């Protein structure tokens, strides 16, 4: 499916509205005479006052009427809307006020990073780009998740696997949280790469999935650099891992993902998994 690239004017309007509507007027100590309201969140005039801009300016932004806020205005809006750091970065991306890397987008693994992924064994590791395409992986990551080498290149994408792969769909104990966090990260990448048609097409494909479409519409934005995942592995049983996502300075669009066992039981399960010969279609792969 082919769609247009990011319409940042429309997305900026929708994002500002969604962030304004989630705010609780009681948190701002507004006079009671202002708090008789039928719609959720702050009014436009309240955001305008907090940001130090005119009401008309907020109206025009939320109606996608082609304004491009200055850096100072973006800062003021981020403060008025009490944006989290990742949401603030997203707002700067939408308004084209954050410097961008003009280099070609990463579609293959940088050779030093591919070697590093291999050298990280026995820790499961893989290399992604901003689209979540899996560019490189070591044997442990393939054994833990799926044999990426058996997949068509177009399906070596961690979000696609989580949404569509029959085994990975049931792999995570807290599936909705994993998907939600992945979508929040993907939305940040979407704003940071508005001219990446392949990414836009990928998101268009994903939105045919009811779960993805529902969570995407919430407009959560979060770049999740570390956390934990609980897995239900068909061979190893329950496995809990801590993950770390690192961004190389030389290749900022490539993400190095490393898993570590979260407890002794999970480490023992991984040790058994990685030392047991893999069984494929009734044969033992040694």
TrEMBL record:
Return the PROSITE patterns for the record: HTH_CROC1
Location of the HTH cro/C1-type domain: 41-88
InterPro entries under this entry? Cro/C1-type_HTH, Lambda_DNA-bd_dom_sf, MLTR_LBD
Q: Identify the Gene3D superfamilies for this entry.
A: 3.30.450.180, lambda repressor-like DNA-binding domains (1.10.260.40)
Q: Which residues form the signal peptide?
A: none
- GO MF term list: DNA binding
Query: What's this protein's name?
Result: Transcriptional regulator with XRE-family HTH domain
Provide the species name.
Amycolatopsis umgeniensis
């Amino acid at each position: 499916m082919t769609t247009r690239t990011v319409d940042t004017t429309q997305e900026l309007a929708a994002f500002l509205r969604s962030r304004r509507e989630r705010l609780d007027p009681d948190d701002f100590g507004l006079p009671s005479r202002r708090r008789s309201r039928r719609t959720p969140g702050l009014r436009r005039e309240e955001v305008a006052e907090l940001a130090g801009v005119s009401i008309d300016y907020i109206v025009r932004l939320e109606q996608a009427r082609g304004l491009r806020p200055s850096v100072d205005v973006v800062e003021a809006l981020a403060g008025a809307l009490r944006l989290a750091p990742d949401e603030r970065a997203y707002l700067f991306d939408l308004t084209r006020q954050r410097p961008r890397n003009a280099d070609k987008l990463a579609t293959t693994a940088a050779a030093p990073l591919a070697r590093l992924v291999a050298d990280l064994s026995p820790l499961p590791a893989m290399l992604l780009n901003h689209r979540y395409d899996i560019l490189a992986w070591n044997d442990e990551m393939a054994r833990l998740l799926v044999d990426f080498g058996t997949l068509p290149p177009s399906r070596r994408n961690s979000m696609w696997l989580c949404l569509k792969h029959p085994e990975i769909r049931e792999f995570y104990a807290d599936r909705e949280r994993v998907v939600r966090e992945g979508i929040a990260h993907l939305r940040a990448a979407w704003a940071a790469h508005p001219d990446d048609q392949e990414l836009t097409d990928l998101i268009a494909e994903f939105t045919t999935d009811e779960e993805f479409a529902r969570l995407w519409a919430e407009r959560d934005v979060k770049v999740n650099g570390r956390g934990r995942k609980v897995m239900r592995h068909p061979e190893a049983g329950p496995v809990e891992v801590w993950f770390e996502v690192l961004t190389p300075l030389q290749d900022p669009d490539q993400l190095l993902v490393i898993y570590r066992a979260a407890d002794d039981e999970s480490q023992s399960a991984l040790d058994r998994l990685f030392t047991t010969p893999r069984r494929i279609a009734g044969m033992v792969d040694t």
